[in-house]
């Protein structure tokens, strides 16, 4: 693939050529290597002909492309989304002589039906053999997909969540051997339904500053998101090995804007640590026509993954317990600090980053010393622009009146599409008598921007397509009360692909 294009992100994963959608099968192996599989069409720049592409990484930013891991066996088959587990105790019987056997559980899509199938790998996840007795869960419907499997220690069972998309239903199945599965419960019709449920995840996540955890049921819906197309949400609750019981009838959105879908949690990270996802940074409404690819295979690519996101639960004023969504270990890929100012006050930080090879930037602005609720005021805005064409993206945070994070990709000219919504905002809804501190941070990487409040109490993922590279940053603070200070840091991010 050609990784040098102006729209090709440098700290995000994208496929060498062809079309990518959902992340699949992610796990950390016992050598400390992260494995990412993904919905992959290696022969066209549009969705279809689904294979499992594969890449590996030590740090979740620097990826090595591996050979395609799972291929369809017939022209009308698709290897749809699913997950992997490491069967270290050989529960499946596929791995008599090893502790690093990997089982992939995926949907086999044909024009007649979707079934849940498995394949096993004796070489640590690089090559797979399909199980001769597939499917492991049969069906007569074309609407039954995206199995995600975890190990549930208390009952010594594998647990699968899988979507019945048009019934708005998540099915729960258990197994002792990954071959025989028993239906144990259904979770149905909570939250936004959209047109269909896809890509469910069940994961145990730590609660900040406690030894406690809570279970998260994470569901993607498409189409039918509030701003159109695809989005995902989560519900918090308890899990007893067979049933998920939501704490209440509410759900929260994982991310705002329009390019964060089908997120998957890595398999096997202990619940005492923050959980990690990658998310498909696109939207079914326009993914097949974005301008990163031409009509020929090898001519560009389509779709990128979000940066890895770390997740834990925090009790927030007004919102209650919430899933935080922050850029995992982003400082580990920070190169030179391009700007640093610990007392910006009301003022501007300007930066020309045309010399930065990656043209990928991370910035952080920490606002402290805000006055009490009745005098809260001020805002922080950022603009990333092209010195040659004048195109720009912008965003910011309004402290008053209601802690809004916003983003605007409308002043870039490389893509016209009725669904390519320009502007997004989300209200963080802090308690206005809170501690008077905020952090606003963001990653801008050629054709994708991700922004965060604090450790991801609010987050947004958005792709954008300028005709000329962005190379200039301006960060402006205005209207702050006198007691407040803002400290700003801006870093070049290390190019993972050049
Ligand atoms: C979600 C999805 C999944 C399906 C896959 C096919 O984006 O529609 O439900 O398994 O994509 O590529």
UniProtKB/TrEMBL annotation:
Domain Glycosyl hydrolase family 32 C-terminal stretches: 356-491
GO CC entries: fungal-type vacuole
The organism's place on the tree of life at top rank: Eukaryota
Domain Glycosyl hydrolase family 32 N-terminal residue range list: 12-310
Keyword RNA-binding: no
Gene Ontology biological-process entries: sucrose catabolic process
One Gene Ontology molecular-function label: sucrose alpha-glucosidase activity
Keywords: Glycosidase, Hydrolase
Similarity comment: family membership: Belongs to the glycosyl hydrolase 32 family.
Official protein name in the record: Glycoside hydrolase family 32 protein
Lineage per the UniProt record: Eukaryota, Fungi, Dikarya, Ascomycota, Pezizomycotina
């Amino acid at each position: 693939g050609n990784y040098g294009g102006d729209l090709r992100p440098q700290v995000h994963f994208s496929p060498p050529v062809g079309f990518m959608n959902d992340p699949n099968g992610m796990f950390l192996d016992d050598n400390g290597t992260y494995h990412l599989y993904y919905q992959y069409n290696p022969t066209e720049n549009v969705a279809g002909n689904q294979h499992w592409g594969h890449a590996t990484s030590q740090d979740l930013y620097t990826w090595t492309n591996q050979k395609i891991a799972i291929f369809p066996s017939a022209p009308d088959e698709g290897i749809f989304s699913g997950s992997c587990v490491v069967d270290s105790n050989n529960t499946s019987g596929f791995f008599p002589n090893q502790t690093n056997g990997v089982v992939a559980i995926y949907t086999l899509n044909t024009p007649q039906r979707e079934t849940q199938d498995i394949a096993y790998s004796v070489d640590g996840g690089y090559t797979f053999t399909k199980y001769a007795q597939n499917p492991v869960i049969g069906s007569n419907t074309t609407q039954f997909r995206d199995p995600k499997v975890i190990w549930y220690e208390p009952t010594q069972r594998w647990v699968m969540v899988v979507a019945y998309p048009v019934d708005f239903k998540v099915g729960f199945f258990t197994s002792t051997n990954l071959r025989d599965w028993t239906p144990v419960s259904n979770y149905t019709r909570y939250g936004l339904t959209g047109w269909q449920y896809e890509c469910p995840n069940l994961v145990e996540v730590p609660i900040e500053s406690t030894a406690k955890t809570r279970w998260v049921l994470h569901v993607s819906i498409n189409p039918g998101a509030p701003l159109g197309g695809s989005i995902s949400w989560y519900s918090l609750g308890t899990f007893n090995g067979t049933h998920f019981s939501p704490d209440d009838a509410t759900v929260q959105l994982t991310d705002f804007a329009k390019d964060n879908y089908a997120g998957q949690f890595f398999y096997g990270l202990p619940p005492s640590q923050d959980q990690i996802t990658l998310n498909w940074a696109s939207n079914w409404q326009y993914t097949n026509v974005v301008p990163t690819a031409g009509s020929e295979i090898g001519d560009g690519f389509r779709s990128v993954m979000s940066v890895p996101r770390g997740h834990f639960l925090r009790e927030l004023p007004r919102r209650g317990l919430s899933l935080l969504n922050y850029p995992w270990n982003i400082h580990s890929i920070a190169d030179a600090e391009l700007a640093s100012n610990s007392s910006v006050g009301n003022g501007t930080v300007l930066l020309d980053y045309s010399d930065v090879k990656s043209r990928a930037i991370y910035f952080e602005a920490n606002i402290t010393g805000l006055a009490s609720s009745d005098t809260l005021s001020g805002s922080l805005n950022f603009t990333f622009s092209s010195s040659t064409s004048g195109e720009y993206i912008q965003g910011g945070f309004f402290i008053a009146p209601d802690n809004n994070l916003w983003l605007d990709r409308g002043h870039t000219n490389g893509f016209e599409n009725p669904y390519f919504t320009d502007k997004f905002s989300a209200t963080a809804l802090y308690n206005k008598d809170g501690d008077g501190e905020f952090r606003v941070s963001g990653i801008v990487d050629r054709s994708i921007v991700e922004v965060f409040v604090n450790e991801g109490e609010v987050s947004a993922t958005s792709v954008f397509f300028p005709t000329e590279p962005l190379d200039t940053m301006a960060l402006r603070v205005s209207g702050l009360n006198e007691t407040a200070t803002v400290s700003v840091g801006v870093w070049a991010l290390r190019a993972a692909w050049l």
